[in-house]
Amino acid sequence: MDKYELALQEKTKELKECQTKKELKSCLECKEVLTCKLRDEYVKAVYESMSKGQTGGFEF
Question: How far is Cα 16 from Cα 1, in angstroms, rounded to an integer?
Fold first, then answer.
């Protein structure tokens, strides 16, 4: 497993823990969805795991 997949696994774990703590099934149910740093880090980890760091950053 490469570093991008490991980072994605870690961010996925953190995100699921947050959802459990807030008793949510999805980030979309959270009032902080648009300003959430953890969710932004998760999205970045997903992108990097797909691109393996071969392209530039990912911005919304």
Answer: 21
Q: Which of 16, 5, 6 is nearest to 38 (CA)?
A: 16
Quick: pLDDT tens for 25-53.
999 999 999 999 999 999 999 988 888 76
Domain boundaries, the chain: 3-51
Q: What is the three-state SS of the chain?
A: CCHHHHHHHHHHHHHHHHHHHCCCCCHHHCCCCCCCHHHHHHHHHHHHHHHCCCCCCCCC
